[in-house]
Design brief:
This protein is α/β, with parallel strands linked by helices. It has a single domain, classed as UDP-N-acetylmuramoyl-L-alanine:D-glutamate ligase. It has helices at 25-35, 51-62, 100-103, 110-116, 134-140, 153-159, 175-186, 226-239, 244-259; strands at residues 2-6, 10-14, 19-23, 40-44, 46-47, 65-66, 71-72, 81-84, 90-92, 121-125, 142-148, 165-169, 192-197, 200-206, 209-212, 269-270. The strands form three sheets. The protein has a nine-stranded mixed beta sheet, with helices on both faces. It has a five-stranded mixed beta sheet with strand order 9-8-2-3-16. Helix 1 (25-35) packs across helix 8 (226-239) and helix 8 (226-239) packs antiparallel against helix 9. It is globular and about 45 Å long.
Length: 271
């Protein structure tokens, strides 16, 4: 299985540590796809010209994630500020709004679409400002999309025709709201859609059948990137032929590893 992610890159800045870590949903999913056995993983995004962008690229090189088609734009990287609760949950508390990703968005050209078509799956997120490019992408490759907490059904409906695998953060939904949302999303005929629920078991729906995650007792250091690890782990194993149950079990192990370290996949650097 070969996966490419197109969209966001950031450094997560931990205020209590005075340390930042490479991240961003698309970067994290690409890295975790490679960690979970993808034959190859790649990333296309917009890198800034600061030291933080250089550190992200260093980490991607170390993790064997190709980024040859990424752009470079003069400016600063996305750098959300993070605080951790006593339970290890990450809380975003702000960050600059004049980053290159706030100012610019990707428009894919034919050479890039040809390159992307050589992969099995393209992952995008709602943080990537890629909604207008989804029609192009869906013509050349299957698309995975992380909606995060964007659970407004009109938003989902507007881009659902271009998406094969959908992921949602549904921690704010109660049980009744969750069941109602699942029934609404079933109408869009995704190959798979999944809803993470914070500390509660995630729910995966594959070809209309529901699978509930089995959580194991672990020591949580930091939840940053755990959902991205779950996504990367599931996609690689499921598309490689594992059953939904087996793919979810391996994805859960991937997320557990991420919860045992700081940052989305390590590589700390001091401010």
């Amino acid at each position: 299985m070969k996966l490419i992610a197109v969209g966001d890159n950031v450094v997560d800045c931990y205020l209590d540590q005075q340390t930042y870590y490479p991240g961003g949903n698309c970067v994290n999913v690409a890295v975790n796809a490679k960690k979970n056995g993808a034959e190859s993983a790649a990333y296309i995004g917009i890198f800034a010209t600061d030291d933080k962008a250089q550190h992200i690229k260093y980490a991607l090189n170390e993790e064997a994630v190709d980024f040859q088609f990424s752009r470079i734009a003069d400016g600063i990287s996305g750098q959300p500020q993070v605080s951790l609760t006593d339970e290890g949950d990450r809380v975003f508390v702000g960050g600059p709004k004049n980053t290159v990703q706030h100012k610019l968005k990707l428009q894919l050209v034919p050479d890039e679409l040809d390159y992307i078509s050589g992969f099995d799956l393209c992952h995008v997120s709602c943080y990537s400002s890629m909604e207008s490019e989804l029609p192009k992408l869906s013509k050349v490759i299957n698309v995975s999309f992380d909606f995060s907490n964007r659970v407004e059904i009109d938003y989902v409906k507007s881009i659902a025709p271009y998406i094969n695998y959908a992921f949602f953060s549904a921690a704010d939904l109660n049980d009744q709201e969750l069941d109602q949302f699942i029934e609404q999303v079933k109408e869009f005929d995704f190959k798979v859609f999944a809803l993470t629920r914070g500390s509660q078991p995630a729910v995966f729906v594959c070809k209309g059948e529901r699978f509930d995650q089995r959580l194991n007792p672990i020591q949580v250091v930091d939840t940053m990137g755990a959902g991205d690890s779950l996504i990367g782990g599931f996609l690689v194993n499921y598309i490689n032929g594992e059953s939904p149950e087996a793919a979810l079990e391996k994805a859960t192990k991937s997320a557990e590893i991420t919860c045992g370290m700081y940052g989305g996949f390590g590589y700390p650097r001091s401010f």
